[in-house]
Amino acid sequence: MDIALVTGANRGIGFETARILRELGHLVYLGARDAERGRQAAARIGARFVQLDVTDDGSVARAFAQIADVDGRLDILVNNAGVQEFGTVDGPLALRGFDTNAVGVVRVTEAALPLLRRSSSPRIVTVSSSAGSFWAVTNPDRPEYNLTNAVYAASKAAATMLTLQYAKANPGMQINAIEPGYTATDMTAAFGGGRPVADAARAVVRLATAGPDGPTGTLRDESGELGW
């Protein structure tokens, strides 16, 4: 049984990822910024709740101290927490976007590494986006070609680069970024459409539970590796 932590998991792809991991028999910590919503979500699927705000260093430290005290290791980390803002683009909006989507990955991953090093098969999956792929946004055949959301795209490009750098620095771990596909979540409600959340979550889980011959240092979707 693996011990997993999913951030931003009280709803959307994060919640479904946690739910599927529980169905597979893993011990799951459901991380959420809002304590009440997080506890309710964890209770629904039999997960353990841990209060975790990826933009707050103290919150992150307390969350991993709790996991360390109870279980002493971590096998799977899913960096799922993310934001996409649609207001007037300015400095404060950019700071919020990067603080969650990129700096949050740094905070959580750095805090998780000591526990992951105690695992016999450590895996990190960061939910990124092909909107941050230079290959995709410059390819007229890709839907990302017509996307104009500077802060979201740039912060996800940073998240993917962080994935590559962490993979290079930790060759004993499987560390990958995933494009979960256009999914019907609160984040995409303004656009409409999107595939079921469970379908996106299954793609995340497959990567998070890959065997010892699984990939590392890649950006992927459910069909395989994507260009950067």
Structural description of this entry:
It is a single chain. The protein is of the alpha/beta class and 228 residues long. It has one domain: NAD(P)-binding Rossmann-like Domain (Rossmann fold, 3-Layer(aba) Sandwich). It contains seven helices and eight strands; from the N terminus they run E-H-E-H-E-H-E-H-E-H-H-E-H-E-E. The chain has an eight-stranded mixed β-sheet, with helices on both faces. Helix 1 links the parallel strand 1 and strand 2. Helix 3 runs parallel beside helix 4 (91-116). The longest helix has 26 residues, at 91-116. The model has no long low-confidence stretch (mean pLDDT 93).
Structure annotation, total helices: 7
SSE series: EHEHEHEHEHHEHEE
Structural class determined from secondary elements:
alpha/beta
What CATH architecture would you give? 3-Layer(aba) Sandwich
| CATH C-level category | Alpha Beta
Radius of gyration: 16 Å
Rough outline: globular
Integer average pLDDT:
93
Which sequence of strands runs across the widest sheet?
3-2-1-4-5-6-7-8
Distance between the termini: 33 Å
CATH superfamily: NAD(P)-binding Rossmann-like Domain
Count of DSSP strands: 8
How can the largest sheet be summarized? 8 strands, mixed
Low-confidence stretches: none
Strand content: 5-15%
Q: Fill in the CATH topology.
A: Rossmann fold
User: What's the helical proportion of residues?
Assistant: 40-55%
